[in-house]
Prior knowledge:
Elements (H helix, E strand, L loop, with lengths): L1 H5 L4 H7 L5 E6 L5 H14 L7 E5 L2 H14 L8 E4 H11 L16 H16 L10 H23 L4 H5 L6 H19 L7 H12 L1 H10 L2 E4 L7 H10 L6 E5 L19 H9 L6 E6 L7 H11 L20 E5 L2 H17 L7 E5 L6 H9 L4 E3 L9 H14 L4 H7 L9 H14 L3 H10 L5 H22 L4 H11 L2 H7 L7 H14 L3 H10 L11 E5 H4 L4 E6 L10 H9 L14 H13 L2 E10 L1 E4 L2 E4 L4 H5 L10 E3 L18
Parallel strand pairs: 1-5, 1-6, 2-3, 2-4, 4-5, 7-12, 8-10, 8-11, 9-10, 11-12
Antiparallel strand pairs: 7-15, 13-14
Helix pairs in contact: 2-3, 3-4, 5-10, 5-25, 6-9, 10-11, 10-12, 12-13, 14-28, 15-16, 17-18, 17-21, 19-20, 20-21, 21-22, 24-25, 27-28
Amino acid sequence: MIFQHLEPLDTAQRRAVGSAGGLVRVRAGAGTGKTRVLTTRIAYLIDSGVDPSTIFATTFTKDAALEMKGRVKDLIPGVVGKVNICTLHSMAARILLEFWEQAGLPERRLNIAEDSEAREVLSHVVGEVRGRVKPGAEASEEANEQFQNDLSDIMKKISRWKENGITAWEVNSNPDLSAEKKAVAEIYQAYQTEMLKRSLMDFGDLTMRAVGLLETNHEVRWLVSNQVQWMLVDEFQDTNRVQLKLLSLVTSTHQNLLVVGDDDQSLYSFRGALPFLMDNLNSYLEEVSGTGDISIYDVSLVTNRRCTDQVLDAANKIVGYNQRKIPKELRSGRSGAPVAVLGSASETHEAETVAARVSELIASGVKPEEIAILARTGYALEPVNRALLRAKIPHTRQSMLPFREREEVLDVMAYLKLALNHSDAHAFQRIASRPARGLGAVAIETIIKMAAANNVGFPHALEALAATGVLTANAKKGVLSLARHLQVLSDAASNLEDSKELLAYVLDEIGYRKWATGRKNAAPTLQLSFQAFREIAEDTPAFIDFMTESALVGDIGGKSEIGVHLGTIHGAKGLEWDHVFLVAFEEGILPSKRALKEAALGGDPSNPLAYHGGGGLQEERRLAHVALTRARHTATISFAMARGKGKTRSESKPSRFIREAGLIAPTTHQTLVMKQPAGAKKAKARKPALW
């Protein structure tokens, strides 16, 4: 059986799968079969006699976790439910739920604040601490925009500290902080106090709370680390400091940790991902664990099974400009079309050119689903979206919003939050008129005040309002219907009903699905979101666990099943297509203006309190590398010489990465494909005219 699982693998993959215990580092370049290695490793361990319940595998996204579970199920049917496969945030949440009393929680429940709720708390705190309140309705658009930008900046700084495991107390006690950061540190402390008062935690609190529990409670740490006998981590290069500390703590007893990653695919420095983590694994682990030098068993996967050598050559050359300890080695041995570079006079002309190329591919027999158009930012895709619509090319636009920030997700979660706490004013305000029930803003505010004044839940407050006789017949009917629905949900949650039942009640009995789908401006993500909810409910039938998992889901959706895929490079990570177009390959977009500024600022990445926190040019090169390696057969880079955003238009230059890839940027009047005719002498290098 073990031989059967190893047979399809190459020599390097077999070494990784069959490695002994201890710390194993698998450097896995793009398209080298890292998911196959991880899933086969799980099957190998089980076939070797390891108890499936002692195997833990973590991934970066919920999508990846579901895919891994499916593959393990195919390899060894019947055991996938026993193996622990989840995201790192989910792992932290499970620890807190299992040991909720030791973690200081008032009940076995995690009240995870959605982004809008966390911003509301922060806005309140800024008013309390700095005396700067949210501008009123009469304030100018500029004043409102400035206030919201300031909130975003503060939240980013707080999130960065949390991603590095730095508490509010530690920040405030640091004597070397700048005056600006001291001001934010004061708000951080007040924000944490207010969140605690409201029994809330934000996304960044989860891992910090779990790490704090394991560090201070030795009994809990022993129980958890004794259970985690084999730990496997996917996309390890995107791990931040506090997550690495969590991994160190949960593997402290058995110390069997296998990590799979590629520093050249690290794209999340803005979320605290540690720079060059794969290269510097030993020193980072020493830092978070306090132990001495750790022996590492190394395996490198360098055979790409996705791209042609022409695509890989360009992708490898770009990241070859980065600082590195080991030269980039990634090969496929499969030849194909050279990477094409298209130059256009404007973003409109660029979009029309790309749309025409896509039409040609489809006319030649290529399925639209095997074509992707990617960009560094969402706004750069707008002209392409319009061009595809004009050309009547079927396409699907990737949602720019993370799953947990989508309107329909916030609505469904608000209903389910009221099932757990029928006094949740934030949740009630969101769903009181979704679907419409004849309630206006004044009526909703009155209900919230009645519930608070009488210390009752919203089912009772709604019934009390209906009894006053001030409502119209239609509004009274709607109010009593909502009161009944909320009571049914509350009773179901109290009776530990299956999460699928509660979800179905919200979507179908309450009528949310019909209402949301029938709206004139129905969200394009509706069906994907409902499908994601169903998958999470199947995976986590216990309602409390379902609520936690749903609140933790970030980006979800994956590859388009209908039409050409339009999306960002970040959203394309882990996906692949036959033909990939990379638009807006320009200075200021890729690399971005922010990255160019960060490169100038510099800073010490090892000091999270002082580091500016961006990936700079090196991360932008990794983005370009990831973008190119999404292509199985052909990759086409395009740029415009002028681009507009809103009323502003400006000249632009082709990205320096075109030159670094060994390609030449054509003039706007020609399309140049770097192709050498068979038997021809090597052409003399042309000097790029557009830099």
